[in-house]
């Protein structure tokens, strides 16, 4: 590396990196709503994890420690060399879409619900279609756990259970309850929210990228407080058969280098004027500028996930639909990596 380039990287890292989760990263209020890899890996979050990642101090259960890559400020990171190709493949003219809100859309709840449980919630058996890449139970899933899209949904049917007593999140894909209180699902993962553990390299989770879903969901309580301090989960129509840190899994057979890998990080360009956005949309857009978005699954272009919550204002969130793919750019998040087997990032 030339000296000038090295100095540039040092300057970038001096103004980018992980930040401390503020009050906006606390637990949501009750009632709120096959692969080749570019990096190696460690075990699943808290269950058989191979890496000994830094843990958060005792106290309030935040959604991952302050030095976790989900909390990394990426506003000053250099643009990735493949940014233009990746944005073009997702859709430079495609409009962003907040895939969350309040009420019903086509008769179904809108967004990904989070079911809160506390101490004493009984664990139940979960059987998995992809058992070899799923964390074993029991999972503390109540009979009335909320399912993405509602009980009769045909989509991804994610179930996210946040155990605030144990400070863990239990996440299922294609989840369906059984009459005896047990569940069946396509895949499942458990993440210890006080640790920076990553899943084993090549392992899926309830998400195609092998990441936590909860970590990437904007929540209504965050925007009420005026700040989202983490990256946001989003989808793209076509991805490459590869993944980059901190993702652990790919979901494509394509080797086209113009397609983004799972885990690719994007941000809303600093030049995009969000000053006239309504309050809720402005908080989300500011997070997209500062913390960016993580490609976590295949789906519609620039669809950003969030919680299902009646406190969202769909009218305010609709302002985000004015954003286009060309308003985003991919960044080189590898500069934040401390260890390929940990989600901990450089300060």
UniProtKB/TrEMBL annotation:
Keywords, sorted A to Z: Signal
Residues annotated as signal peptide: 1-26
Spans through the membrane: none
Low complexity composition-biased segments: 18-37
Chain intervals for the UniProt region annotation (Disordered): 18-39, 135-155
Domain of life where this protein originates: Bacteria
Protein name, per record: Lipoprotein
Species assigned in the record: Dactylosporangium maewongense
